Amino acid sequence: MPFYPSEQAATPPQIRPPEGAAPGAVSFHISDLLALLDGYLGREEVAMVYRAYLFGAEAHEGQKRRSGEPYIYHPLEVARLLAGLRLDATCLTAAILHDVIEDTGRRKDEIIIQFGQEAADLVDGVSKIGQIEFENKEEEQAENFRKMLLAMARDIRVVLIKLADRLHNMRTIRVLSPVRQKAIARETLDIYAPIANRLGLHNWSVELEDLAFAILYPLRYRILQEAVRKRHGNRKALVDKVRVAIVEQLRREGLPGEVSGREKNLYGIYSKMRQKGLSFEQVYDLLAFRIVVDKADTCYRALGVIHNLYKPIPGRFKDYIAIPKTNGYQSLHTVVFGPFAVLIEVQIRTEDMHRVAENGVAAHWLYKTGDVGMQKRALQWLQGLMETQQQAGNPQEFLEHLKIDLFPDEVYVFTPNGDIKKLPRGATVIDFAYEVHTDIGKRCAGARINHQLVPMRTVLRNGDHVEVITSAYSAPHPSWLNSVVTGKARAHIRNYLKNLRRDEAISLGERFLAKALQSLGYTGEVSEEAKNALLSTLHMKAWPDVLADIGLGTRIAAVVARQLLPDVPAPSLVPSRAPGTIAIRGTEGAVVNYAKCCRPIPGDPVLGFLTAGRGITVHTEDCPNVAEYRKHPEKWIDIQWENGIDGFWPVAIRVEVKNRRGVLATVAAAMSEMDANIDTVSIDERDGQDTAMDFVIEVHNRVHLARIIRRIRSQEAVVRINRKRG
Fold first, then answer.
1. Which CATH number covers residue 121?
2. Residue 386 and residue 149: Cα distance in Å, rounded?
3. pLDDT value of position 420
4. In the predicted model, what is the mean pLDDT of the chain?
5. Is the pLDDT of residue 502 over 80?
6. What is the pLDDT of residues 550-596, one digit of tens each?
7. How confident is the model at residue 6, as a pLDDT?
8. Is residue 588 a part of any domain in this protein?
9. How far apart are alpha carbons 435 and 444 in whole angstroms?
10. Total of domains in the chain
11. What DSSP line would sit under 292-331, residue for residue?
């Protein structure tokens, strides 16, 4: 009987989904989870998980999922998935509470008080970033992944919770809109399934792939599923025959082992068909057999048995025992000709290797073997990602590097000292150089592969011995980006090139600013106080950042000069009917445009927006587009109209009038009386009663416009008049 704390009810509340719940939603009782935990956790640990359930149930009280079931059902299912991996109580506690910070307003310090710092950090690592405004959905997604991976580097259980969360969401995704389903499925296929595979969670990876495949390509999924079903009926006897033959052969050789057969998952079949341009009938190695034996030495002996029983295919043998995969996976793989010339894949591994293959990084907590080598390899991968993200310029760039690293088909090459380096298939000498050390990558000038001189762009093959040739005069070149495949190399090259461009931009910006200051009659050195004041105004940290912006064209030298020297008299103004001369204080020497979305006129509160190649665009403060532009505060500058501006300025107004004969002439006459020129007019006849007329008229300033509006509003036929914006 599961343990419950004495102060709580002996029978905990039952969580069952309502009628018509989403596919994949089954009746679930908290006692079902506690029964699982009783098998491997102590009483105090089970009590902690139960307290987490009570805390989560109270926090999510009244919340429901899209399917209509109580929200607490979801975190319980996430915890049950992790309990299947026999993870510790702290991880299960965090799994049950993984949405309380994000969705209920509960604070992290509450979790710290009740469940400890470790559980609270796990919950925080899984929670999305909700307090930051992003430019777009892609940036938000990229930043969330970056945060998750940073948390993973500190505690890898963060990603185990996140993967379990995604797996349950994918199982119950059908209640969402088709557009949302496809977006989540694409993200799952691009990121979460590869991460599960990279961490050795094979079963989760395969299920995530197939669930996402069914949503993204439903017709292809159904056709392939039916084809496999038909073939499975024909192949069942073949699977049984081959399994029995392998068992008998192992028994005769005195090598007892557990043998099982299976077919490839649907997405695996589909991927192979796409990558190799095959039809379904041409995919022969749909069958795979697994042999689990007692020790590594027996694996190699069993391999000889298989090769004696069925003829091996040259070049299709892989020894992942001697050289494990990055995720810690170990096994012998071989492909042989089976009965009726059917290709069969055979995997041979020990029981410990099989546990790691099925549960990946979770096997460390699962069996407490003390062998943390696999977890170390996972952490090494994460540390490499962290180094990459430090070089990446923005979250989207980091996400690009992450996707590259999540799809490795590895090659193994040797350093001059005999060390083994794992690289993605297609990696070049440059990738290898950066893998050895960043400084070697920067100074790479060529290489010797198997003692032969080769160019830096040479693609590496399994077993190559690689010696990098460096030069003090060599440096990364933009063309290198076309030759590298690893995210680490790409990030370092891009970072170097950006820094190189930054140095050039600073030098160029310094010259531009000096010239702009000279145009104002100032030839001295700008004081540090003026520079610091401007940095504070622009919310920037260092003066070279301002110079770099000028050199890159994102900030205008003439404007910066005016901001540095606000007391220097401005050049005299020349009145004009067209808004093309200087009318905005502080923009002397800069190109000024007036936004057509809001048509600012003298007297309007205005803001200036810096645009590379277009100078300063002037908007009214209440322009509808300002909300979007305010996401770039570094590009806004405070500006003011100059005093005594003359000339005419276009402004748009809408006049709604009763549909009467001569009403257009009446309104036009009123405008003319008020000294306003009409540029354009368009008429929208809404019905037989009212008509809307849109005018673009020329006015002197805001006061002049107000007089015109009052004069027009006094006309009997006018129903409504307003200034158009946006």
1. 1.10.3210.10
2. 8
3. 74
4. 77
5. no
6. 776 667 777 788 778 776 654 433 333 333 334 555 455 556 778 88
7. 39
8. yes
9. 12
10. 5
11. EESSHHHHHHHHHHHHHHSEEPTT--EETTTS--TT----
Confidence of residue 418 (pLDDT cuts 50, 70, 90): confident
For residue 209, give Cα distances in angstroms to 84, 347, 453: 20, 21, 43
Residue 457: φ, ψ to 5°: -85, 5
The pLDDT of residue 114: 92
**What confidence tens digit (pLDDT) does each residue in 435-491 have?**
888 889 888 888 898 888 888 888 888 778 899 998 888 888 877 877 888 878 888
pLDDT-based confidence at residue 300 (cuts at 50, 70, 90): very high
For residue 24, the SS3 value is: coil
Q: Cβ distance 99 to 60 under 8 Å?
A: yes
Phi-psi region of 200 (alpha: psi -120 to 50; beta: other; left: phi over 0): left
Task: Give residue 471's Cα distance to chain centre.
Answer: 37
Rounded Cα distance between 465 and 448, Å, is 8
CA-based max dimension of the chain: 112
- Structure tokens given for 608: 């200036």
List pLDDT tens digits, range 663-672.
888 888 888 8
Q: What is the pLDDT of residue 136?
A: 53
**Same domain assignment for residues 92 and 198:** yes
Inform me whether the pLDDT recorded for 28 exceeds 70. Answer: no
Half-sphere exposure of 614 (CA within 13 A, CB side): 11
103 catalytic? Reply is yes
Helices (H), 597-662: 626-629
User: Residue 609 domain-assigned?
Assistant: yes
Q: Which of 102, 139, 263, 467 is catalytic?
A: 102
Q: Which residue, 38, 137, 670, 118, is CA-closest to 396?
A: 137
- Over range 284-302, report the average pLDDT: 86
Same domain for 184 and 293? no
Asked about 210 being catalytic, the answer comes back as no
Give the model confidence (pLDDT) of 139-190 as tens digits. Answer: 666 666 666 666 555 677 888 898 999 999 999 999 899 999 998 998 888 8
Cβ–Cβ under 8 Å, residues 327 and 199: yes
pTM of the full structure: 0.53
pLDDT at 42: 86
Structure tokens at 298: 């027996």
pLDDT of 192 above 80 = yes
DSSP state of 459: B
How far apart are alpha carbons 511 and 495 in whole angstroms?
25
Q: In sequence order, what are the beta bridge partners of 699?
A: 649
Task: Name the DSSP class of 257.
Answer: -
Q: Using a pLDDT cut of 70, give the percent of the chain over it.
A: 76
Cα distance between residue 95 and residue 119, in whole Å: 9
| Secondary structure (DSSP) of 340-378 | GG-EEEEEEEEHHHHHHHHHGGGHHHHH--S--HHHHHH
Pair (528, 625) in one structural domain: no
Distance CA 246, CA 347 (A): 12
| Residue 216 buriedness (CB in 10 A; 0-12 / 13-18 / 19+) | middle
481 in Cβ contact with 457 (< 8 Å):
no
- Whole-angstrom Cα distance, residue 31 to residue 83? 13
Query: What is residue 406's three-state secondary structure?
Result: coil
Pick from 188, 216, 244: which residue ends a domain? 216
Does 480 map to a domain? no
Q: Which of 32, 45, 88, 103 is catalytic?
A: 103
Could you tell me if 179 and 35 lie in one domain? Answer: yes
Tell me which residue range forms the domain holding 256. 219-371
Q: Are residues 542 and 630 in the same domain?
A: no
- 558, with CB counted inside 10 A (0-12, 13-18, 19+), is buried
Q: Is residue 365 part of a domain?
A: yes
